[in-house]
Amino acid sequence: MEVHMNNIILIGMPGSGKSSLGVVLAKKIGFGFIDSDLVIQQREGMTLERIIEKHGDAGFIQIENEVNCSISPHHTVIATGGSAVYGKEAMEHFKDIGTVVYLELPPESLEERLGSLKERGVVSNGKTTVEDIYADRVALYKKYADITLNEQGKQIRETVEMLYDIIMNKDQYN
Ligand SMILES: Nc1ncnc2c1ncn2[C@@H]1O[C@H](COP(=O)(O)OP(=O)(O)OP(=O)(O)O)[C@@H](O)[C@H]1O
Ligand SMILES: O=C(O)C1=C[C@@H](O)[C@@H](O)[C@H](O)C1
Ligand SMILES: [Mg+2]
Predict the structure, then answer these.
(1) Which protein residue has the closest C-alpha to ligand 1 atom 16?
(2) Which residue in 59, 61, 138, 149 is a FRET match for 87, CA 20 to 30 A apart?
(3) Shortest-distance atom of ligand 2 to CA 120
C-alpha cells in the first residue's frame, strides 16, 4: 500500500488515543501536530462541551465540519475529534491531503478509558452508551480509513511503533 506522506490524519472513537498518540508520532517522524478539537475551541472561544450545549449535536457537527475543511497543513499529524466522521466534506478533504488512520478499539476497552462521557462532551445523537455511539459510527470510521490499526492490548508506545512501521513502508500489518 502506498502511504500519502503529506499529512497523517487520525480518526476514531473518543478515548482511542488520537490526541495522545498523535503528538508522540509527530515528534518521532519530524512532523507538526494539530489537534482539530483545539482549533474548534479557539475559533468558537469556548470549550467543546459548551459548544455542544449551545449549538446541539447537529450544530457542533456543522462547526467541526467547517473547521476541519479549513485545516490544510503540510507534513503534519492531525488528531481529529471523535465525531469528525459525521462531516462528509471534511473527511473528503482529509483524504485529499493525507492518509487517514483509524485507531480501532472495541467499546468495552474504550469504556475503561473514558470515564464519564458527559464530562468529555461527546456528540451522542441521542445515544447514551459507548456501545451505542460506537455502533452509530463504526461504519463511517471504516469507510474513511486508508489504514486501520487495531490497538487492543497495545501501549501508546507500541501503537506508535506499529504506525511508524507502516508509514515507513516496513509494513507487515496491511
Ligand atoms: N494504550 C493506550 N493507547 C492510547 N491511549 C491510552 C492507552 N492507555 C490509556 N490511554 C489513555 O486513554 C486516553 C486517550 O484519550 P485521548 O484524549 O488521547 O483520545 P482521543 O482519541 O483524542 O479522544 P477525543 O475524540 O475525545 O479527542 C488518554 O487518557 C490516554 O492516556
Ligand atoms: O466523539 C465525539 O463526539 C467528540 C469527541 C471530541 O474529540 C470532540 O470533538 C467533541 O467533544 C465530540
Ligand atoms: Mg483528542
Answers:
(1) 17
(2) 149
(3) 11
Question: Which residue of 113, 119, 141, 150 sits with most ligand 1 atoms within 8 Å of its CB, as the best mutation to test the pocket?
Answer: 113
Q: Would you write out the chain's pLDDT as a tens digit for each of its 174 residues?
A: 555 669 999 999 999 999 999 999 999 999 999 999 999 999 999 999 999 999 999 999 999 999 999 999 999 999 999 999 999 999 999 999 999 999 999 999 998 888 766 667 789 888 888 999 999 999 999 999 999 999 999 999 999 999 999 988 754 444
Does the complex come out with an ipTM higher than 0.90?
yes
Enclosing H/E stretch for 7: strand 7-11
| Domains of the chain: residue spans and CATH | 7-167 (3.40.50.300)
CA-based nearest residue to 160, from 35, 33, 30, 25: 25
